[in-house]
Every structure is written in C-alpha cells, then in structure tokens.
C-alpha cells in the first residue's frame, strides 16, 4: 500500500521533503537505464520547475503508506501543462524504482496524473521512455512509425505504455560527444561563411539587440524540428519570454552558451545553436536548440553555429567532458552534422501519445 503526496513549490511547506524524494527516485531509474546520473534534475531545478511562467508543473511522489522520508520514495509522476502554445497537451512522466515494479505503483501514479491532465482540460497526453542500447531489428523490436529507429518490445516501460493505451509516434536518438573535439575533426568541417554571415556568441545572458530575433528562432524550433505524429502546434516566443528563460536558467544554477549567425545585409539572425550546463556538474553539457531558418538552409550555417559553440566552450567550461544531445531518428540533416562532429549514439527515447 502506498500514499501519493503532492510536491509543494514552497520550501517551507511540511511536504517539502518530497522534492528531494523525486530527485532520489529519478536518479535510481536513470542509473538502471543509463548507468549514470548525468541527467539528474537537482533539488533547486526541481523546485524552480514548480513555478514557471509558461508551464504549470505538478509533481507527485509515491511512498510506502505512512512514510514521509525522501529516501523511501518509490515512484514519481511529473505532469507538465504548457500554458502558452500546446495548451491542449499534458506531458506526463511516470517512473517507479526498479525494486518496486509490477505492484501497481506506476498505474496509481498514472491515474492521478491523468486526472490532473483531464481537470486541466487537456485532450492529448505525451510521454517518453528511455532505452540503452537501441535494439537490433527483429521480433523483440518495436519499429518507429516514422521508419527510423526502434525500441525493445520486452521492456517494463514499453509494456506499460502499450498497456495504458499509448501509441509509439517517434524514436529519438540520444548521442554523446566526448570533449574536447580534436582539431583534426573540426578543421575539415570549418567553412568560411563569406561576408553575408557573421557569428556572435553570448554567455548566460542574451544581448538586448537580438531578443526579438531569438524569439523568432525559438518559435521556429517548435515547428521545424521533426515531431512525427505528435499532436504539437507552434509554441510562440516573444522577447519577454526569451529574457524570462535566461533568468530562469540562471536561477536554477544552469549556465548557457549560445552562438547566433547574423545575416549581415538584413541585420537579422539566420541561425543559432546553444548549450546549457548544470553549474554543479562541471563535466556535463547539454546541447540545447540548433536551428537554421528555412531561407538560409544549405549554406553550412548549422555546422558553423555548432563549431562556434565548441570553440567557445573550453573558455567557459574548461572541465567539460561530454555533451549530450537528442535528435529525432528521422532528422537526417541534424544527425549528419552531429555524426561528423563525433557524436556517438548512446540510447534511444520513445515518444508516446494517447488521446485523453
Ligand atoms: C513504466 C513504469 C513506470 C511502470 O511502473 P510499475 O509500477 O511497474 O507499473 P504497474 O505495476 O502499475 O504495471 C501496470 C501494467 O503495465 C504493464 N507492465 C509493466 N511492466 C511490465 C513488464 N515488465 N512486463 C509486462 N508488462 C508490464 C502490465 O500490463 C502491468 O499490469 P499488470 O501488472 O496487472 O500485468 C516503470 O517500469 C518505470 O519506472 N520504468 C522506467 C521509467 C519510464 O520509462 N517511464 C515512462 C513510461 S511511459
């Protein structure tokens, strides 16, 4: 028998211990899948996600009945409700400690999560699950409907998602790049973009002159990255949201580095690439958005922006050892750039969807 406890945003609330509990169980699940806790979302970040301006996030933890200790948490649910764009969607993640599975805890968390989504008027639920390594083709593999990528059929998460009425919509490749990248790799990939394009880099803050342009790029990110059959629409950004996003990252102890490519004749931005890094984990870097506007594609700007980030990174994060990135398995152009830079596949994520 278990109790479900809502995770409060207020650190002075009597149930504030649940924030540490959700981190604890997430680490155990990540360790079981990836053998590392690089993706661990720490306590300050978890707390910050509970009061974001553009997304309402609910978190629940499952504990053995009567227990109120972070280390006894056996499962957790995250219910993300976008407020600006995709307000028809609930993004629900459920995880149960490997030692506590097949006892109905996942189902109890799901039912509570789906009730929250339903009460918020959402009509689509999206979720994901991770697997390492990607299985070979065969009877134990479930192929992505996009034709690119597969996941293991006989796995707790796959079985659970199928049993709960989800459909596999997309497989995403998680890749890792070991740092530093040798100049023997980068050298042949460097191109002079010519006089029409100029690169600028920014760290931990966006330059005021580019805020509107960054909002355009970030909005395009929500429509131009392949989303297969996922029922997602445009997520609109404006300059205020770009500023708020930077402040939010700083408040969560995250640093970021962004390279933008200016189209000099029009003084607009043609492309950008950014990385984010938890300040308390000097070895770990996450690739964030990379996008080239449609009208500027085919000029090598994606590679240009990525190399600009890699060139600037050692000055900002000298102890960085690896960059993690996630790309749709069907996103051939982005994957080609990443493979050329030396990213190697580490795991895959399934993107699941069901109507509510
Ligand atoms: C997916 C997960 C949350 C399930 O948690 P759980 O507490 O074991 O789930 P439940 O006990 O409620 O199982 C519900 C149903 O899922 C299915 N299921 C779950 N694990 C299964 C397995 N290993 N084999 C076959 N069916 C399974 C069954 O239909 C099960 O019902 P049953 O036990 O009556 O047969 C857990 O395995 C997990 O944390 N995985 C990693 C995190 C993750 O990927 N989460 C996202 C899932 S979309």
TrEMBL record:
Disordered: annotated segments: 128-147
Protein's recorded name: GNAT family N-acetyltransferase
Keyword annotations from UniProtKB, A to Z: Transferase
Domain N-acetyltransferase: 21-188
Molecular-function GO terms, alphabetical: acyltransferase activity, transferring groups other than amino-acyl groups
Organism, as annotated: Cellulomonas humilata
């Amino acid at each position: 028998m278990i109790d479900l406890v809502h995770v409060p945003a207020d650190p002075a609330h009597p149930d504030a211990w649940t924030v540490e509990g959700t981190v604890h169980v997430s680490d155990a699940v990540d360790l079981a899948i990836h053998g590392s806790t690089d993706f661990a979302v720490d306590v300050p970040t978890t707390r910050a996600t509970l009061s974001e301006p553009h997304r309402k996030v609910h978190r629940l933890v499952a504990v053995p009945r009567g227990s109120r200790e972070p280390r006894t948490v056996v499962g957790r649910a995250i219910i993300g409700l976008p407020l600006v764009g995709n307000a028809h969607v609930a993004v629900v993640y459920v995880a149960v400690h490997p030692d506590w599975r097949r006892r109905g805890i996942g189902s109890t968390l799901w039912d509570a999560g789906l009730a929250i989504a339903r009460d918020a008027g959402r009509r689509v639920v999206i979720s994901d699950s991770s697997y390492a390594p990607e299985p070979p083709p065969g009877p134990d593999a479930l192929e992505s409907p996009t034709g690119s990528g597969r996941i293991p059929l006989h796995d707790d998460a796959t079985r659970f998602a199928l049993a709960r009425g989800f459909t596999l919509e997309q497989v995403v490749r998680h890749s890792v790049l070991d740092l530093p990248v040798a100049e023997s790799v980068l050298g042949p990939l460097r191109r002079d973009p010519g006089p029409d394009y100029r690169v600028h880099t920014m760290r931990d803050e966006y330059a005021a002159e580019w805020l509107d342009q960054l909002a355009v790029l970030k909005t395009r990110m929500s429509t131009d990255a392949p989303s297969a059959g996922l029922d997602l629409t445009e997520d609109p950004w404006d300059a205020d949201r770009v500023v708020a996003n930077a402040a939010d990252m700083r408040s969560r102890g995250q640093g970021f580095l962004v390279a933008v490519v200016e189209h000099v004749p029009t003084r607009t931005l043609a492309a950008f690439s950014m990385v984010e890094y938890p300040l308390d984990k000097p070895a770990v870097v996450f690739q964030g958005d990379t996008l080239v506007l449609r009208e500027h594609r085919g000029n090598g700007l994606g590679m240009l922006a990525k190399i600009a980030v890699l060139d600037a990174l050692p000055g900002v994060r000298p102890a960085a050892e690896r960059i993690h990135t996630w790309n749709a398995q069907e996103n051939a152009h982005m994957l080609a750039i990443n493979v050329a830079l030396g990213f190697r596949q580490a795991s895959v994520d399934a993107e699941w969807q069901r109507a509510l």
